[in-house]
Amino acid sequence: MSDSPVELPSRLAVLPFRNKVLLPGAIVRIRCTNPSSVKLVEQELWQKEEKGLIGVLPVRDSEATAVGSLLSPGVGSDSGEGGSKVGGSAVESSKQDTKNGKEPIHWHSKGVAARALHLSRGVEKPSGRVTYIVVLEGLCRFSVQELSARGPYHVARVSRLDMTKTELEQAEQDPDLIALSRQFKATAMELISVLEQKQKTVGRTKVLLDTVPVYRLADIFVASFEISFEEQLSMLDSVHLKVRLSKATELVDRHLQSILVAEKITQKVEGQLSKSQKEFLLRQQMRAIKEELGDNDDDEDDVAALERKMQNAGMPANIWKHAQREMRRLRKMQPQQPGYSSSRAYLELLADLPWQKVSEERELDLRVAKESLDQDHYGLTKVKQRIIEYLAVRKLKPDARGPVLCFVGPPGVGKTSLASSIAKALNRKFIRISLGGVKDEADIRGHRRTYIGSMPGRLIDGLKRVSVSNPVMLLDEIDKTGSDVRGDPASALLEVLDPEQNKAFNDHYLNVPFDLSKVIFVATANRMQPIPPPLLDRMEIIELPGYTPEEKLKIAMKHLIPRVLEQHGLSTTNLQIPEVLHSWSFCCYLS
């Protein structure tokens, strides 16, 4: 590191340094991939035998809050025509960048002249894009008087800000500056003493305290640890030596205190760390090392993606607060910890449930609905008439709390297909929940999350699969439920089918209320006797009688045989079966 005065040219090619600051005396490694930065390095450094100086100017993202003065480059020639002069106030952004559709660049009005210590050139595969890695050493501060474009990169007319050698010699006699220098060195030495206990690589830093001038030490020490971008800019803007030393002393002392506090906390909990906690600590350190080395990829974090999905789920406010608490708990856990997978599965369920999503009902045409019922079902005149009446009420009052229809009849008479026809007429999604053989109340209400392998009940799981909150839900074989020591599913269904209670249905796994009032429930049963009387009171029973032999023959001729022919790639032109043969086959089958 040379302390001899730097001859600063009047113009410097400017390399942007996004959201970071290079200070005099500091050394940084920059990877240049932007076409304008690559062109600058190529023309100003790579192709020249005697490499001159370049300017490094901090630039900020457009959404960041401005600290210090900003400037906006114009688009002038190499001589500076059309360039942007720096005034006392900040200019918001580059008009040329905005005109070209790019993000406006917010240049800082002060920068650092730097020289290249090392250059390496690379080619990315398979794109063939040229990149450069530049190791730069900051030399002195400068102020930008004018900034203009030279081809793909910018050139600045600059003036030196650092003090000359004569001015420094005079300033060193100032008693206030001498006191500030001693205070800074004492704080820096205290920091080095703390770091010596942790690492053995601070010997060179200790030597710097005795050999490097104090005006350089301030910048070097501040650049050696992590501070915010605003604090880096504040340090760069500290042109006056007294201000710079005061600022550096404050930052070094703050860094020292943070190390001491962290060390104190570590000593308290070190003896109490379990195996999983130690693993968590090591993983956190590994993640920090990878970030420092630039070895982390830009893949979307799974937990962040889940949180965004939850934000878009449209949960009610009280449920969203509950989900946020669970998300904070998940973020504190490692994937290997017990309970991580169950907590994540619970949050995924909350994100997947259709809190606000509904199927839009089309204009209900009763004539079309009747034709559809007649086409899909033979006979059943009274049953179809009751369904048309049900649909007519829905047409007059879409938000009416209609009765729960329960189709009772022997197997094969079309109970399930009638429920599907109701969904088709209303343009709603249809889902079937099989209740045959269900004896555990948890199949309806879900298992509590304290149990291993817990899961939501069949109703909540069905709504998750259908992805809307207003489907037509068929409770199939409602008479086949039983009861034992694990509870009575029929009793749980009382809450589900009661319009006064199902507005806040509480699934034990979900543990938050879910509105089932938009769901149209339809049930089927083979017999009424096994259904408990309280559950029967919740439903309107529609009995479907069995078909007569004549009706079965008509169904076979109109529906079954054409369907079988279609399944085998045939049509009535390929195969014709006389009606007499139909009757004979039918009689033989039934005999």
UniProtKB/TrEMBL annotation:
<dbReference type="InterPro" id="IPR015947">
    <property type="entry name" value="PUA-like_sf"/>
</dbReference>
<dbReference type="GO" id="GO:0016887">
    <property type="term" value="F:ATP hydrolysis activity"/>
</dbReference>
<dbReference type="InterPro" id="IPR027065">
    <property type="entry name" value="Lon_Prtase"/>
</dbReference>
<feature type="domain" description="Lon N-terminal">
    <location>
        <begin position="12"/>
        <end position="256"/>
    </location>
</feature>
<dbReference type="InterPro" id="IPR001270">
    <property type="entry name" value="ClpA/B"/>
</dbReference>
<protein>
    <submittedName>
        <fullName>LON peptidase1</fullName>
    </submittedName>
</protein>
<dbReference type="InterPro" id="IPR004815">
    <property type="entry name" value="Lon_bac/euk-typ"/>
</dbReference>
<keyword id="KW-0576">Peroxisome</keyword>
<keyword id="KW-0067">ATP-binding</keyword>
<keyword id="KW-0720">Serine protease</keyword>
<dbReference type="InterPro" id="IPR003959">
    <property type="entry name" value="ATPase_AAA_core"/>
</dbReference>
<dbReference type="GO" id="GO:0004176">
    <property type="term" value="F:ATP-dependent peptidase activity"/>
</dbReference>
<dbReference type="Pfam" id="PF00004">
    <property type="entry name" value="AAA"/>
</dbReference>
<dbReference type="GO" id="GO:0005524">
    <property type="term" value="F:ATP binding"/>
</dbReference>
<dbReference type="InterPro" id="IPR003111">
    <property type="entry name" value="Lon_prtase_N"/>
</dbReference>
<dbReference type="InterPro" id="IPR027417">
    <property type="entry name" value="P-loop_NTPase"/>
</dbReference>
<feature type="compositionally biased region" description="Gly residues">
    <location>
        <begin position="77"/>
        <end position="86"/>
    </location>
</feature>
<dbReference type="GO" id="GO:0006508">
    <property type="term" value="P:proteolysis"/>
</dbReference>
<feature type="region of interest" description="Disordered">
    <location>
        <begin position="70"/>
        <end position="104"/>
    </location>
</feature>
<feature type="compositionally biased region" description="Basic and acidic residues">
    <location>
        <begin position="94"/>
        <end position="104"/>
    </location>
</feature>
<keyword id="KW-0645">Protease</keyword>
<dbReference type="GO" id="GO:0030163">
    <property type="term" value="P:protein catabolic process"/>
</dbReference>
<keyword id="KW-0378">Hydrolase</keyword>
<dbReference type="InterPro" id="IPR003593">
    <property type="entry name" value="AAA+_ATPase"/>
</dbReference>
<dbReference type="GO" id="GO:0004252">
    <property type="term" value="F:serine-type endopeptidase activity"/>
</dbReference>
<dbReference type="InterPro" id="IPR046336">
    <property type="entry name" value="Lon_prtase_N_sf"/>
</dbReference>
<dbReference type="Pfam" id="PF02190">
    <property type="entry name" value="LON_substr_bdg"/>
</dbReference>
<keyword id="KW-0547">Nucleotide-binding</keyword>
